[in-house]
Amino acid sequence: TANGARPGRRRRIGVMGGTFDPIHHGHLVAASEVQSSYDLDEVVFVPTGQPWQKSGREVSPAEHRYLMTVIATAANPRFWVSRVDIDRGGPTYTVDTLRDLRTAMPDAELYFITGADALAGIFGWRGHEQLFELAHFVGCTRPGYEMDDAALAAIPSDRVAMLEIPALAISSTDCRDRQRAGQPVWYLVPDGVVQYITKHGLYADLARTDPPTL
Ligand code: ATP
Ligand code: MG
Question: What is the pLDDT of residue 58?
Fold first, then answer.
């Protein structure tokens, strides 16, 4: 079927974890490339709770990051957004994300999608011993980041694959800096996300607003 389950094959679900502050076209192209290369049935975007690796800066409220991710992915029938990390509360560890998704979808094969930069730090992730039992890992090469060969060599080769995606030198950091400096973020992030950022005064420092209460 066009978008449904295929008989005789386990469902393949991509898992794209991120802070998404804001989500940008680099994230979306990476997810789309992995979806197509690995013939994934769906990709679930999972915005982090309070990100433990980003304690050096203030991260936008989770509801803002969640809603921007929903706006950015809404038109793609294979893309979904999960609240597991946000609703769990506390810092997000990938091992918890994968365990929760495994519980929700016990029959699915999970493919964790991550930038090669983040993959290089995998042995610093909590519960890394169990990570490879829970999911395959797909490391996306990303312009400006060099893969640490030693770190890659330590990863079980049957559980990790590298995928070169079209070079998109976009980062959330750059989008925030541009917004703060009054430079355009149009075409770096989806149109609806530009409008959401403006509407809520995100990344303006002085004009910070509270997340919507629904
Ligand atoms: P920040 O600049 O705040 O760190 P970011 O752009 O790295 O933000 P994250 O939310 O940290 O975005 O990234 C989520 C995942 O997407 C990570 O695995 C990251 O490596 C990957 N990623 C981010 N930007 C790109 C890109 N342009 N191409 C491929 N992968 C990317
Ligand atoms: Mg990052």
Answer: 84
Atom 27 (ligand 1) nearest CA: 26
Closest residue CA from atom 20 of ligand 1: 115
Best-predicted range by mean pLDDT (46-60, 86-100, 122-136, 140-154): 86-100
State the average pLDDT over residues 146-164.
75
- Judged on CB neighbours under 10 Å (0-12, 13-18, 19+), 156 is exposed
Q: Contact at 8 Å (CB) between 155 and 121?
A: no
With 0-12 CB in 10 A as exposed, 13-18 as middle and 19+ as buried, what is 148?
middle
User: SS3 for 158?
Assistant: coil
Protein residue with least CA distance to atom 19, ligand 1: 115
Buried b (16+ CB within 10 A) or exposed e, 168-181: bebbbeebbebbee
For the Cβ of 18 lying below 6 angstroms from any atom of ligand 1, the answer is yes
Domains of the chain and CATH, by start: 12-172 (3.40.50.620)
Q: The whole model's pTM is what?
A: 0.90
Q: Which residues, other chains included, contact 149 with Cβ-Cβ below 8 Å and sequence gap of 6+?
A: none
Ligand 1, atom nearest to 141 Cα: 29
Q: Which pLDDT score, from 0 to 100, does residue 128 have? A: 79
SS3 label, residue 95: helix
For ligand 1, is residue 33 a contact (CB within 6 Å)? no
Helices (H), 8-77: 25-37, 62-73
